[in-house]
Amino acid sequence: xxxxxxxxxxxxxxxxxxxxxxxxxxxxxxxxxxxxxxxxxxxxxxxxxxxxxxxxxxxxxxxxxxxxxxxxxxxxxxxxxxxxxxxxxxxxxxxxxxxxxxxxxxxxxxxxxxxxxxxxxxxxxxxxxxxxxxxxxxxxxxxxxxxxxxxxxxxxxxxxxxxxxxxxxxxxxxxxxxxxxxxxxxxxxxxxxxxxxxxxxxxxxxxxxxxxxxxxxxxxxxxxxxxxxxxxxxxxxxxxxxxxxxxxxxxxxxxxxxxxxxxxxxxxxxxxxxxxxxxxxxxxxxxxxxxxxxxxxxxxxxxxxxxxxxxxxxxxxxxxxxxxxxxxxxxxxxxxxxxxxxxxxxxxxxxxxxxxxxxxxxxxxxxxxxxxxxxxxxxxxxxxxxxxxxxxxxxxxxxxxxxxxxxxxxxxxxxxxxxxxxxxxxxxxxxxxxxxxxxxxxxxxxxxxxxxxxxxxxxxxxxxxxxxxxxxxxxxxxxxxxxxxxxxxxxxxxxxxxxxxxxxxxxxxxxxxxxxxxxxxxxxxxxxxxxxxxxxxxxxxxxxxxxxxxxxxxxxxxxxxxxxxxxxxxxxxxxxxxxxxxxxxxxxxxxxxxxxxxxxxxxxxxxxxxxxxxxxxxxxxxxxxxxxxxxxxxxxxxxxxxxxxxxx
Length: 648
What we know:
This is PAS domain S-box-containing protein. It holds the Pfam family HATPase_c_2. GO terms for molecular function: phosphatase activity. The chain has about 650 residues and is an alpha+beta fold. It has four domains: about 5-125, PAS domain (Beta-Lactamase, 2-Layer Sandwich); about 165-280, GAF domain (Beta-Lactamase), CATH 3.30.450.40; about 300-520, 4-Layer Sandwich (Phosphatase 2c, domain 1); about 530-645, Heat Shock Protein 90, CATH 3.30.565.10. The chain starts with 6 loop residues before the first helix and ends with a strand. Helix 8 (about 180-195) runs antiparallel to helix 10, helix 15 runs antiparallel to helix 16 and helix 16 (about 560-580) packs antiparallel against helix 17.
């Protein structure tokens, strides 16, 4: 039979702050989260009246000298749960005598004894100071923006009044030419009617959106007694209607009618132009989406490799195509050799992407099946490209990881005209694995490529990349590599995912070429690791919590770190189940002082922070992750995405 839960331990380890008061409002117990939140020790709180430990600000007492929080406690003692969604209660610092502004979300719950009478009050408290202050700041900014917007609107109207003398047809023609949307073009005609012809009301409608007569109906409903209409016709085809009117009777001259008809005709040409552009935009957007999907399908997430924490990023520079010839790969061969490769086929279009797919697949197949060193594998790839008629010219670096009889690891690599790999060592120094350059793939050497070796101790990180990360028109490649080396050393303390994101963000912001960055950090072989698929059901979060708790226990992770990791994996898995698609993949790596979690699902949309609703039950998942994780981020893992986070 399972043992009954230790309720005292449960109370102590609750992630939210809780306080227990007796009927005299004396502190009976607090949990760890409460002492941390209020910066007090348990001894400073337990056994003391709560308002003696946290005296209220006299300025916030009511006419009877009672604070709203005390009244809330009394209501709970009377038997009713009392919630204070947002309460200002400034905390007195006993060391300085100064009060610190704090806002709280509080729930006071009665706890009856065996006889049914309330014996204690359980308080749940959450610090919402930052939220309240940010909301107040946002309201001030919105007010300022409203005032500025009103000022801008007043200025715009004054400028339009001064432009009434401009010739009517010239005005409408110029403004319609500048219109970039149908709504803008219709607004031009409405403004034209008001400013040039002093109309009280005007309406423009398209027949594929509204039935005939809609425009005239709008003007008539506005109380106009004089009405004029003009059809919007292009090449004999009626596209819409233009109507304007005046509240007072008005005699319209032939010139006025001619101006209205000319404006309607010009608007018709604008409709044709905008519809043609809409079709082009839709086609371009579909092409971009298809190209990006193709590119990411060619660059899937690297396989899980024992002894390595691997992550990769791809960034396209050619916005017109969204595809290119850069690639990365990581896999284990048939004999168990860990293999990493990065390369670049010349070009930034669909052809380059197709050739890249062929080269990458050939290299993967050759390396998997043929037990040879890195240089021989590249030579075999060269021969295969020639014999199979693959007309590709590419740079590449191929690297394998080896473990000696004494357990030490090293990397062996061969380089075909590619930028040199970097090794970030555990002490924070960075080695550049530069050797004499050798010929590109596609240029058969006939002499055999060189193989080099370098130590790869636990904690070291390999960086493989393409030239888009380091090459710019205004500086030599060597300067770019030196910059990458310096930034890597400066960011050596980061996890692989965080280091990858930072390097791409800082060095590839103005990249003129596609960028690939592959990082592989050496971790103890066979160390605590978990990779499991969870069903997209309500049980997934509970299963994830159990797996993390058990893994942390076996690895000797401190309780506080394990509790934080358990809470965060629950939030991330729940978010994937509720908002994602398909099974949820949970990956867990545990080091001596770090828990690395990855939660993946098949939905590509990244999670979005929602504004905190103080009275809502949920909606705080990303806020918790942002507040408690040492580092976290989201990466694209086709067909979906991965949320990763580190807890120290």
